Amino acid sequence: xxxxxxxxxxxxxxxxxxxxxxxxxxxxxxxxxxxxxxxxxxxxxxxxxxxxxxxxxxxxxxxxxxxxxxxxxxxxxxxxxxxxxxxxxxxxxxxxxxxxxxxxxxxxxxxxxxxxxxxxxxxxxxxxxxxxxxxxxxxxxxxxxxxxxxxxxxxxxxxxxxxxxxxxxxxxxxxxxxxxxxxxxxxxxxxxxxxxxxxxxxxxxxxxxxxxxxxxxxxxxxxxxxxxxxxxxxxxxxxxxxxxxxxxxxxxxxxxxxxxxxxxxxxxxxxxxxxxxxxxxxxxxxxxxxxxxxxxxxxxxxxxxxxxxxxxxxxxxxxxxxxxxxxxxxxxxxxxxxxxxxxxxxxxxxxxxxxxx
Length: 357
Fold this sequence. Notes:
The chain is α/β, with parallel strands linked by helices.
């Protein structure tokens, strides 16, 4: 499939992603900045993103699961490639064979990794209550340091709960809990800040920051201007344009009624492509920078837009549904979700184009 025959084209600006990584390095002078490429690089292609970041100098990468790590290992040679999801029993040999770093979050995981002579990251829970050593397990380790013998701890990390909300009280509590947890463990470098945490100030600086969404243009400082560059443009074809009279309805369940004689463009996009049904009657697209409202229901393969005020729209034209005029955060606000979900939902039917400049 080429962009000439495609019904939809997703352009990913790898140069913007690496520029965002460089900008985050400047904001985090206390230590290195990793590239979080889980969720297939937040929906944009983990191998392509990883290779671009590696070429730019990134030497620390995080994924969620072992299979994700195996899929990109050769794209980031000699770099630390860590798996956040923990050490599933029986997978230890795969970590060793592919030089992967497990993120250990339980006493059992620590016991199974000890003695392998390989580095690991210890995950301590400071408020998320998902993965990570809890207070009881930390106390066990503090009183029985022998449980850590033979374990090469590269970093101790924790995960922030509400870093995108600077005034949340947890942003004062979690650094304190993290410092207390590290004091109970052997000396090791720390990793705390995620994308938004990098913007929270000196209490969140550490030896390794772990930005994800900010690399991909999602605003890490909601309510303020986005300091990151946009990295995606999704353009979809107009398949048909039809004139409908006043009072005509559009789409499933007739949820939209034309208030005037209208021109309706049907575009090659639907919830099978990750374009959320929640955008029905709330979303929009752009034609040459002019917004066109989404009318009616988003269906599996088709979405309809009111192009009455854009007479140049004809079958074969392109509508922008993500890009310079519609950021992932804009689409997320209309859908009642976040930019992370908008990006990670992007479907496989799009023709993908990767640009380096």
